[in-house]
Structures are given as C-alpha cells and as structure tokens.
Fold this protein.
Amino acid sequence: MKYPLATGSWDDREREAILRVIDSDRFTMGTVVAEFEQQFANFFGARHAVMSNSGSSANLLAVAATLYRSQNALQPGDEVIVPAVSWGTTYFPLQQHGLKLKFVDVSPTDFNLNLDQVEAAIGPNTKAVFAVNLLGVPCDFTRLTAICDEHDLLLLEDNCESMGAQLHDKQCGTFGLAGTYSTFFSHHICTIEGGMTLTDDEELCQIMRSLRSHGWTREPLPSHLTPTADSTSSDFHNLFQFVLPGYNIRPNEIFAALGQEQLKKLPSIVKGRQANHEYLVARFAEFEKRNPGLLRIQSPQTSGTSASWFGFAFVLSEYCGPLRDTVVAALKANGIECRPIVAGNFTRNPVMRYLDSSIHGSLEVADSLHDRGFFVGNSHCDLSSSIDHLLDVLEFTLTASRRAAA
C-alpha cells in the first residue's frame, strides 16, 4: 500500500511496557490501569477517568450510567438527539437501555451535528444530546452547550475519533457530562483495544466503575446505591454484593501500560496529523483551481477549532456523484486504501429495523456523504508524498471519466 488507512506508532518503549506487565505477573485490571486513568484525566483536564476494554464500551458506560444517577437520571423512553453520521456504537447503547433515538442531519462543512436541526428537533420527550466529533473535528460546543442548558438537556460526547482535538483550548471529550475515547489501532493512540470515559461528576464515575465490573460493590459507590447492611452482612460479603445490572468490560494491565507510553506521544502524534492536513489543504487549493467544483473536503466551521484529523473525507459534487465507484476502484488500484465516511447515513443501514428511532426532517447532507463520499487515512508520519499521489490519481480519474462521458 502506498497510502494505508492507518500506521502504527509503537517502538521499543511499548514493547518494554508489555514486558514490565508480564514480569509483574499481574495481568488483570489493577494498579497500572489506575495510574493510566489518573494520567489520562490529568492530560485532558478532567476530574475522573474510567478505562474499559474498548471505545464502544466507553460509550456503553457513559450511556448506562445516566440511568442510575440520583438526580436527573434518564429513563427508558426518553429521547436522545444523535447525528445521522457516526459509527454504530454511538447508537446501540441508547437502544440497549430503552432510549429513543432521534436522528438529525449534519453540517455540509464539518460533518458534525447541524445545530439548527438540533434546535428544531427538540420536543417534550427530548432529554439528551449525544454529540459526535467526527474524524477529529470538534462540534460547535459553544452553541451546543447553550442549547442544552436552555432546554435542560444532558450532553454526552462521543470523542472516539477525535482524541487531542480542542475548541478554544479546551479538550474535546470534556464538554459534556461524560466524553468517550477509543485507543483502537487505527485511532490516535493505540493500546491494541481500549477505551476511556471522562467525567467531572464523581457520582457518575462511581456508577461507571461498578457497571464496568459486574455491577458489584468492590468499587466505592454513591450513597443511594450502597446496599443497606443487615444483621448477617459483613465486609466479607459486602465485597461481592451486586447493586447494578453491570457488565464485564474491564481493561487489562497490558492495555494500560501501552496507554501510558502512547499518551506521552500524543502531542507529537496530533501535531503530525495537523501538519498533514495543512499540506492537504494547500495542495487541494491547487487542485480546485484546475478542477473547480468537483470535490469538497471536510472543513471546521467554528472559530477556535484545533482539529486532530483522524483522516480526510472527500465528497464528490452532485454531477460527479455517479463516478464514486470509479474513483474508489482507481484509488485501490493505485495503492490508496479508502472506505466510506464512517458509516455514511446510518439510517440507511438494515439494523435500523431494530432501533426505536425517528428522523427529524431530511438527511440531505448525510445522504451526500453516503452516496458521494469517501475517506482516506491520516497518520503522525509525513504523508506529503502520499497526498500528492492521492490528488494526482483523483485528478486523472475524474478528468478522464468526465471527458469520456462527454
């Protein structure tokens, strides 16, 4: 592959971290996980971090915990506004906990929630918004938090694709009640598998820690969830009481040891990804001068944005839309890996028949990403030659195809 979707960022430090855990003879969740959680929370400016076995599980914990709060808990049947473009694991925890999804369209520029549509979609049963920072680009949280405050809505933040992105120098993943991160291979840092949920709410943190480990009482619990002792109870039995319908989605010590080393590299990883985007924008401006209106790229629309650029999304114009399959084939033939933009318009997936959901208005932009969009990777490595190759292939393919059609 001349231009892969993802590249690794491990070196001897990660290998040594794995060996330290092996030598310790403690592999299950323990002190290394706790250390990494504290380091992660400190890095991103949050009070609490809860590590889990994947970004998907991080979303699961964030959603599930909202149902067990002592105040302002979500209830089955409550409606949650979600963007029409995201990965399945944004949506599935909502369905799995009896919440109703309301899909709204995304912005044609940054591909995040269209906030005009969010405001219009709010109804009497709307209780929360689950925002997604798509492909490393922050939502407009200045406006979104104001909307949520005005309507007394919980704000959750799926930041799994956008680690290191910032808005007005505040880290994405820290704007809502809880924010989630993924450390899967193709994401900004890699711990093989892994996820993290951040929150400033101590009660929510305690609930998530219990839910993560079977729903038992081994972790400190909020007072309203602490079981009442009876005459036969003892510390021995209290360690193994179950108070919540939990899961086993714990991480292990190897994942956490890798995370400690990877977190040290995150500033340089984000800087490298941003440098690649700057180069892409400059080269794309030249492409546009020669080929006006053929393509558009994802672009932040909010001032103060510092994107971490998970990858690069392209959308063909309406009159070039039929060429998407031709373009994809040409990219693959020239050693350039590509894929749909996340999952395109998610409401066009067959799984929708299992989701309790509704759609607000049209999903015109989401459809354009679904039908005419494609995505290529990014990395901390210098991709200037790969980007040159990409744009050369795109220009040759689109001009040749249009000439042939004429």
User: Anything to note?
Assistant: The chain has two domains: 12-259, 266-405. The longest strand covers residues 126-132. The radius of gyration is 22 Å.
